[in-house]
């Protein structure tokens, strides 16, 4: 590993002796390949193990699961840990904590003001009323805040990726009302499980791990003048609330799902049967920097 021959090989691999290309990519590839070589040496990786890994990556790509394996290996969580530390240093800590986006957002969901019905009525799930107020850190309500919400159905599947669901089922964008409140009527989601025959689950099996997530609901929250928030809530009482394969759970983001039998309370939401209420209030942190006010770029379904 530490011979002149390997040193020169790595430099040529990363194009360090070439004038063209991208310097940042060269730096990263040089370091990655150095570390891969080092791992092969330190762990005495056999050719069989090496080629297994190569064809594993082929399958991962074929299955479209690279962005599913990433959170399973704690990479999304690690990026969050780094962004939290950055916020801390920049004096931007506080408010509702972030947690990972996950790979299943779809851009372009219908937008409404104050209220949205999220489910298409085809699944006979427990009715969920999901509501909360968006405020600043002093509790001042923030009307006209865009709250984007997406979650799974009773089978743990997400519309668009699960072609059996209707377009934008369980995906809505709600602008908060004059009191800063958003309210959604939907169905209580089921937890998510990695495709059992997929590449992600195959690796998790080798690690003795499951590929399950608790019932959860994703949020993007944005308002000019405030830090963009990417977060999720995990419903309390799920077997996996504190055992999420994607490491998205944070104590402040665990919400009770409260069964409400009272007819008058149901009537308040235009319902004539018992329902389950989930309350999630959100606090945003002031930032005048445009780069803080937007979600970071990544490839997303149907995003321009
Ligand atoms: C999900 O629904 C999810 O949110 C994440 C992070 C990974 C897989 C499925
Ligand atoms: Fe999810």
UniProtKB/TrEMBL annotation:
E.C. designation(s): 1.13.11.1
Cross-referenced InterPro entries: Catechol_dOase_N, Cchol_dOase_prob, Intradiol_dOase_C, Intradiol_dOase_core, Intradiol_RC_Dioxygenase
Keyword field: Aromatic hydrocarbons catabolism, Dioxygenase, Iron, Metal-binding, Oxidoreductase
Pathway, per record: Aromatic compound metabolism; beta-ketoadipate pathway; 5-oxo-4,5-dihydro-2-furylacetate from catechol: step 1/3
Gene Ontology molecular function, alphabetical: catechol 1,2-dioxygenase activity
Cofactors required: Fe(3+)
Domain Intradiol ring-cleavage dioxygenases: 130-158
Taxonomy, superkingdom: Bacteria
PROSITE patterns, sorted: INTRADIOL_DIOXYGENAS
UniProt key word RNA-binding: no
Catalytic activity: catechol + O2 = cis,cis-muconate + 2 H(+)
PANTHER family the record matches: DIOXYGENASE, PUTATIVE (AFU_ORTHOLOGUE AFUA_2G02910)-RELATED, INTRADIOL RING-CLEAVAGE DIOXYGENASES DOMAIN-CONTAINING PROTEIN-RELATED
Family, as annotated: Belongs to the intradiol ring-cleavage dioxygenase family.
Identification of the protein by name: catechol 1,2-dioxygenase
Organism annotation: Oceanimonas smirnovii
